[in-house]
Amino acid sequence: LAKTTQPISMDSYEGQEVNITCSHNNIATNDYITWYQQFPSQGPRFIIQGYKTKVTNEVASLFIPADRKSSTLSLPRVSLSDTAVYYCLVGDQAGNNRKLIWGLGTSLAVNP
Amino acid sequence: GAVVSQHPSRVICKSGTSVKIECRSLDFQATTMFWYRQFPKQSLMLMATSNEGSKATYEQGVEKDKFLINHASLTLSTLTVTSAHPEDSSFYICSLQGETQYFGPGTRLLVL
């Protein structure tokens, strides 16, 4: 089972770019990397998913080096509403949910 | 993405009573749904995998007779916490697997 390691917490200010790095040394060949956002007392919300190189959508970018042993979620120009916990998970895209291990995530605090 | 609802959003019950939590997929037919539990300041813990028309698969350490799961249709899975105790107080979240995992808003259970 692929385990991930993320910083427990990060602080930032409005308008800054935030990069959260996740280590997943035991990632398997068929594993994808997925990031979720969770606000207090809400279910997680999908942010972005990737397999290699770079993926970008309307809310974030995901950078994955060639060895895939880590990944970096980049949030451009954060606002106060981006204060949340961000989880990095690796697993089979086909949805073998039993392979997903949820760590403690990274608690991001965006300050005014 | 898929829209998932949960009902109720929060519930308070007396110790020893049973509580049913519904998880509905509003726009996606889900043969598989998942149930998670999240204690304060902790990560999501997978409790069980709910399979439409068959028995649920429980994770190690989760009592199947205490946490009854019924997945009667492609859009509804229910979790019943039987003989609830204060230690069952938690945040219960369901999800379904589409292109990625789509999570419900969660149900806050407080057992007095």
Structure description:
The complex is a heterodimer of chains A (112) and B (112). Chain A is mainly β and 112 residues long. Chain A is 0% helix and 48% strand. Chain A has a five-stranded mixed sheet with strand order 1-9-8-3-4, with no helix packed on it. Chain A has a four-stranded antiparallel sheet with strand order 2-7-6-5, with no helix packed on it. The termini of chain A are far apart. The model of chain B has no long low-confidence stretch (mean pLDDT 92). In chain B, strand 4 and strand 5 form a beta hairpin. With 112 residues, chain B is an all-beta fold. Chain B contains no helices and eleven strands. Chain B is 0% helix and 54% strand. Classes of the chains: A mainly beta (112), B mainly beta (112). At the A-B interface, strand 4 of A face strand 4, strand 5, strand 9 and strand 10 of B.
User: Quick one: overall form of chain B?
Assistant: globular
Query: What's the SSE pattern of chain B?
Result: EEEEEEEEEEE
Fraction of residues in H or I helices of chain B: under 10%
Uncertain regions spanning at least 5 consecutive residues of chain A: none
User: What portion of the residues of chain B fall into strands of 2 or more residues?
Assistant: over 45%
C-alpha end-to-end distance of chain B:
37 Å
Largest interface: A-B, 19 and 25 residues
Structural class of chain A: mainly beta
- The rounded Rg of chain A comes to 13 Å
Total DSSP helices of chain B: 0
Largest sheet of chain A: 5 strands, mixed
Overall, the morphology of chain A is globular
Structural class of chain B: mainly beta
Q: For the report, how would you describe the main beta sheet of chain B?
A: 7 strands, mixed
Query: How much of the residues of chain A is beta strand, in percent?
Result: over 45%
Helix content of chain A: under 10%
Q: For the record, give the distance between the C-alpha atoms at the N and C termini of chain A, rounded to a whole number.
A: 39 Å
Say what oligomer this is. Answer: heterodimer
Poorly predicted ranges of chain B: none
Number of β-strand runs of chain A: 9
